Predict the 3D structure of the following.
Amino acid sequence: MNAAGFPVLSLITWLPLLGGLVIMSIRGDEETVAANARWTALWTSLIVLALSLVLWARYDEADPGFQFVESVAWLPDWGITYHMGVDGISVLFVLLSTVLTPICILASWESVKVRVREYMLAFLILETMMVGMFCALDFLVFYMFFEGVLIPMYLIIGVWGGPRRVYAAIKFFLFTLTGSVLMLLALLAMWYQAGTTDITVLLHTTFPQAMQVWLFLAFLASFAVKVPMWPVHTWLPDAHVEAPTAGSVILAGVLLKMGAYGFLRFSLPMLPQASAELAPLMFALSVVAVVYTSFVAFAQTDMKKLIAYSSVAHMGVVTIGIFSANVQGISGALFQMLSHGVVSGALFLCVGVVYDRMHTREIARYGGLADRMPVYAFMFMLFTMASVGLPGTSGFVGEFLVLVGALEVNFWLALFGSLGMIMGAVYMLFLYRRVIFGRITRDDLRAILDMSPREIAVFAPLVVLTFWIGIYPSSFSGFWDATVNAMASQHQAALHAGHADLKLAGVRP
């Protein structure tokens, strides 16, 4: 339990499942069941959001450790516990998950018309898995939530997706599951070495350097797929194109952050020597992702695919910041993750707005929407500018800090990383110009209507967050400053200790 004796993290984690049980118990005709399922899912997600805001308000920013800790013996003979807690990094990703879930439910209010009860149930299960993963302080509990996310997302893509939904869902499942098998082997090796799966203990366990390299590569196989890093990114465009709009929002907004969170929670602090030794590999993969997928994004004719490839480029910037292993780089990566969760989710919602009206995502099928949809044009412009890193929006803060952190490591790393910002402006402005400006030449576009009050309500919190992060970033970085400072200091101390041990052994570091 936490200091106050109230298991707030467990309540936030498991309350969506309670809402799911209520949805399963609904009876009546199809229309009644659908309406009640929508309202039950929405109210459940809003209550969870309210609880996460209380968690956010009561979090002590000066404490770099884990707070609201809960611990219950699960398999004591094996050193495994149900252990929950949040630090300055995970508390904001819990909040991001709980903010996006009601937005997704509201965005699906009219677009999802078949199996509505099952759809809402899948989203509530998905919320439980996402929040549980960010709160878990036991490696086995983390792994269960980490893998549990696959099931509801697989169903969301495979049941409510587009024409090639089964192919995309199976590809998504196989890519992510295959990588996670190696992480399970790493988990077993760490348990065998330390005698526990408690993350707070593993963070202070020194693993042999040779073992660290193998553990790092095992983690890389799992987390790189989730980020996703080049060249294991190919599942993402298919998943985004075939997923329903809300599925794409969660996929880009939260699920892509799971891999980067894994690097921050496990690879960097637990395996410092291996992280430093293999940092050039991570930088190389990240730079390729930034440059290559930016060019690929520019060549796309499908709006969803363009935004999907842009996500790979943005997450490449994140991994550059993480493995810079300095305060600026890590803070920039966290800002970029938070901003990308908001902005990319909003961009997929922008695509969903016109898709619901036209049922096509081909860029060439649009043009001149500013005449018929001025509110939509403003929304799309705002999130396009945030995506390319316009100062004053959330996208600028993270990219700037990552480049500062990368510059401390290597000038060329910062130079190639900055190419993502330039190319991002090229393909995003191309998309915006082609869809919004010009003249309407199609009769079906002349009859298109602007955003409804429900759609404006969906975008409103994302607009606020985009400006809030961009104009007052310290209100967010204050949560993780103490944690990131401690992480960077411990990383450097571990590297110095490792070099000292090697010198004593007569080995040149």
Notes: Residues 224 and 467 are 30 Å apart (CA to CA). The chain has a mean pLDDT of 87. The longest strand covers residues 67-75. Residues 278-471 form one domain.
